Amino acid sequence: MGIVTDNKGAAQADADFDLSFNDGHEIKIIFNCEVLSGCEFKCVGCFVNKMGSNVGSFDRLNNAIDLFNNSGYRVSTINIGPTDIFGSNNVLDLLKDPQFRDALSKVTTIQFVTTLENINMEVIDELNSIPKADGFMYDANVAINPKKFPHGYKDMIENLNLFDDDLNYYLVMNMDNNDETISRVVEFSDIADDEFDTILTLNPSFLRAPKFKVQKHLIDKWKRLGDWVDDAFPSTIIDQAQGGSLELNYTYCNGNFFWTPFVYDIVKIGTEKFKVQDEYDIESWISAKGDNFMSQLAYTENTDSCVGCAHMMKCIDKGVQSYMEHHSITECLFPYPT
What we know:
Number of domains: 1
CATH topology: TIM Barrel
Largest sheet: 9 strands, mixed
Strand content: 15-25%
Structural class: alpha/beta
Distance between the termini: 46 Å
Shape: globular
Radius of gyration: 19 Å
Helix content: 25-40%
Number of strands: 11
């Protein structure tokens, strides 16, 4: 089927994208699998490590999915990343791996990112051939080039109809350091809504920068957009549900699983504190978020404005103060209106 009719409306109605407190209060699990290596593109504002990683065993990923599903949770999403799914050099090997295919067949959303500048039909054919769970939908993050958008993008996006299963897409733009790009965010967001029936989201790839001063510089730059955040900021940064109580995010990288806080987006911190210590024990998975609650609450006393802020508990729920404590940050990270 490919792109669903009423793309934005269908996504908002889909169970995997509905993060509200509906009846049942289902807790969804998302696995961000950093398994792709290499990328032929050099997108401005991208800090992704393209050298690849030691993938580890997909038996373990399968076991983790089964553990959650058998313990009253639901693994909804596998994100195949961190590079362009059509631009990596090992994607076909991964999609032919029986254990990885089995893992993909157990979720209701497969998420991936692509510039759509180099469609690989072998990749699409392999994904099409994987058995899908009931209610399945792809979630395609189309990374746009601000210097080219929107010219030619409708034709490029039409290629997503080559997928056999339902597909929702949205547009993604790196939060880079270019003032012209920053100034056009509202314009691009309106075009995404009016002409592409989707939303524009901002990708904080800078959170992957190895030097924290790069992260801090770009956070400071983007949060100055707070003057118009209420009306136009096309991001999930102040969405209470994204990364909140009903969503647990984990990253599978270098053969290890990590609990990932949500700061603008999921943030992998590859230390023992965030590592799942016993992947065969469900308590080891779900306790990380709870165990960090008190330490985050205590750290708010060291910050400039968390205590007394209306958003404090929302940030703790997402793990924001865990990120702040890791980097010894005291100032607010977000463009909240004052």
